[in-house]
């Protein structure tokens, strides 16, 4: 492969009006799944770089929970194969939307990994609500740190579970990517929520803002329950979750309709050419039926 | 599963400002891949409903090439498990963009399958350029038929090759879905090309319009070469291709910057939470390096 050491770049796709991150370093990251064809079964490897005792095999730590001592429960670390580089000078040229006329930016940004448990076989829904709440509080703390960089405009928090949902490491973790641009889906969502709010006076989403620790535990309880129901009813599918939020800088007039939410996407079908071409999804099940299905499972 | 016989519906996702098609019938379609985990190897089944001699196992034919006689080379048929239904009354309410205030439409539309060869093991790049050209001419003919329906606003032509690119049938085929709405990616692309044209006087794409038979053969030759190079250099990956075009109704002022193109997407990595959340893609290889890689392969 050509130029594996080139620094990352963010380029505008002028046809589709979106940003693409080019990051040759990413091609070298390891995978501890036997093969992409076995979606959720990691190799029976008992230990990996994300395990307690293997801290030195990882990229540097940003912080841990609890804050000091060897017995951590959560670690926020740098990604060893980052899509964006924190070392690139922010060019002053950054910010704005694709289509501004600037066709490429240097790939400045942050890419972190949140290790959710010190122990290899533990999965997120195995944690108790307080422990999941701690993971949310770790996201929050890291977002607050990233907010201090003027040129960072958006932080995407996400989790890939299972190889066919994109995961390359099986040890329970999520990721955070801080971008010097506002991604197109985020501005579209904001415009769309504004339009709906303007037309109806209603919010298309109702969520709590300002996440506090007690709310984080509530959310932890809800996420645990949802994932467990999904595992029972949908046969432990690979899944992604994303914290969908607003740009870091929002104006006071945008506040009434900007809310964050957690989106969980179980991987039950494959995206085909229709979805890629149109951006429209074909769903074989109506949302009210899917909700009923999940409501009906009883979890002991 | 609840309500498998409900008619399809197109609903607005008011958060993301996009359409979602709900189609319970889709969940019943068969798959002749042994398991989704083996991306490109169909079961060694020698015959399927798409094979010559099995026409009666298929949904009704729309037309064939050549137009009459039992020895067809291409068949355009109705999809037996359509995402949209051609039988639903067009409601008069159709058209427009998500966000118009209308939250659901009846799922009116057309969903066809283009069988590209009468014989099971033949893949698209095995055909000669003239035969591939015939496939493009079949798309064109069908689009011209669909254009006669006032309420059809966009036709998406696409191909899924290999189970991990979404294919459920291994016999060489592509699909066409005619929609009563303009999908969001299409309007975004049009806006984006307009902006680029306005700023630079240049087209972000250079393609031929009005596809004639000789051009179709040229395109067939190019597609065959590209797919064969991709197979050699990237180890026969699953892939999708999409014909990206403009809405069926374009105004004369839009003509200078509306062009269609063929997009080929080899499936080399999995879309993860970051891409789902942001709509931004992370690419481990720069486009100029990928182009070099393909340029360098020599095909005997
Ligand atoms: N020793 C170490 N120290 C620190 N970090 C280490 C490390 N070893 C590995 N890592 C990092 O750990 C991360 C694990 O992340 P995931 O398993 O969620 O998926 P990954 O980011 O590989 O790709 C998926 O998610 C991305 C983003 O959605 C998609 O682009 C991609 O196609 C999909 O496969 C990797 O990003 C890797 O770079
Ligand atoms: N006897 C018969 N007569 C007529 N038609 C028949 C038939 N038997 C099967 N079919 C149809 O043939 C089509 C084959 O299409 P593909 O293999 O390209 O993928 P499919 O549409 O299943 O789903 C992929 O593509 C869609 C659209 O991109 C995604 O929504 C989905 O997740 C992905 O798996 C199916 O749509 C099926 O309904």
From TrEMBL, chains A, B:
Task: Name the UniProt key words of this record, in alphabetical order.
Answer: Carbohydrate metabolism, Metal-binding, Nucleotidyltransferase, Transferase, Zinc
Active-site positions on this chain: 173
Cofactor remark? Binds 1 zinc ion per subunit.
Pfam families given for it?
A: GalP_UDP_transf
Q: Where is the Galactose-1-phosphate uridyl transferase N-terminal domain?
A: 8-183
Q: Which GO terms describe its molecular function?
A: UDP-glucose:hexose-1-phosphate uridylyltransferase activity; zinc ion binding
Is Nucleotidyltransferase one of the keywords UniProt gives this record?
A: yes
Is the keyword Transferase in the record?
Answer: yes
- Co-factor requirement: Zn(2+)
Q: Which GO terms describe its biological process?
A: galactose metabolic process
Residues binding Zn(2+), per UniProt: 48, 51, 120, 171
Instruction: Please state what the protein is called.
Output: Galactose-1-phosphate uridyl transferase N-terminal domain-containing protein
